[in-house]
Amino acid sequence: MTTTQLTTTQLTTTINPAEIEAFAGRVTADTSAWMVTTMAMIGDRLGLWQVFADGAARTTAEFAGQAGISRRYAQEWLSSMASHGYLTYDPATGGFALPAAAVPVLAADSPVYFGGLHQALYGLTAVLDRITDAFRHGNGVPMSEYGDDWWEGLERFTGGAFDHLLPQQWLPAMPAVQRRLEAGAAVADVGCGRGRALIVLAQHFPQSRFTGFDIHPESIAAARQAAAEAGVSDRVVFECLDAAAGLPGTYDVITTFDVIHDAAEPDRLLRAIRAALRTDGRYVCVDINASHELPANAGPLGAYFYGISVLYCLSTSLAQHGAGLGTCGFNEHTARLMCAAAGFGEVRRTEIDNPFNIVYEVSA
């Protein structure tokens, strides 16, 4: 009898019960984490975390009144968050509070704010049926199938890096790029999404001019509106374009932010970027901080990367009959090989310590 033919009773008697119990406990904890993330997303959607941003403790009644929600639902939500340790609870006073270290993560505009990611992950649930079908047939899910929660949440999450890291840490680590932007550069952002990166750059570098390209029409429409609202439409424009087919014009600086690993034709896209980069130009490539070797990616963050690959990165590439690199597919090892094949010069990994991303400065 093979292992696959063993009955449940026979199987459990051949394994140490303590090991089964330990693994069941781990799965229970992981399942609880999904529930906690869902509750945190509800808190973000209703603005509940912001009620606690001042650090003060509140009873259920006080919290419900300030948040404008039902007291009974407030009690259950508070209890869930306190049970997981996101909130503290004082039995003597009945007061709940958000620890100071949790405020930038859950309740404030910061580079480590997770509210946008929670919204984005919730948005992915809408495509689960399509994803499971793709498992059977090897196809993908096109971008048009993903709803507003995914796109809006993704913008909010990545916006923390653009607002708080791009001008303050990433660009100072690339002095040659920063000098060009200060003097006045022609800049293109390939896979610009809703335009947050270029809008931030335009606000910091008024002498430069910026063009964003993306294949997703809804994102381009949102980017144009955001640029108008930010008052930078005079120096930032957005075009719906498949950049792999070639970029119009040439540029001093070209950027991609978590784009190459998603691309249907990453080799062709890199060649197009190289062709559009001026002789002394710079390509700023931000992509996933992962290894080409699976054991080096072991752990919670690696599991997240591979999961988001299944739910979006891999699937949208395969939907275009693409390469399907996946979230971890444009790691440092692969990035160096592919950039060299595309005709770039030096690929320099900047001294940026970020768990999610590697920032490369690539010469023409």
UniProtKB/TrEMBL annotation:
Which SMART domains does the entry mention?
PKS_MT
- Residues forming the Polyketide synthase-like methyltransferase domain are 162-364
> What keywords appear on the UniProt entry?
Transferase
Any Pfam family matching the protein:
WHD_Rv2258c
Question: Per its UniProt record, what InterPro entries does this chain match?
Answer: MeTfrase_dom, Methyltranfer_dom, SAM-binding_MTase, SAM-dependent_MTases_sf, WHD_Rv2258c
SUPFAM superfamilies (alphabetical): S-adenosyl-L-methionine-dependent methyltransferases
Record-level Gene Ontology MF annotations: transferase activity
Key word Transferase present: yes
* Protein name listed in UniProt: Polyketide synthase-like methyltransferase domain-containing protein
Q: Give the organism, scientific name.
A: Paractinoplanes rishiriensis
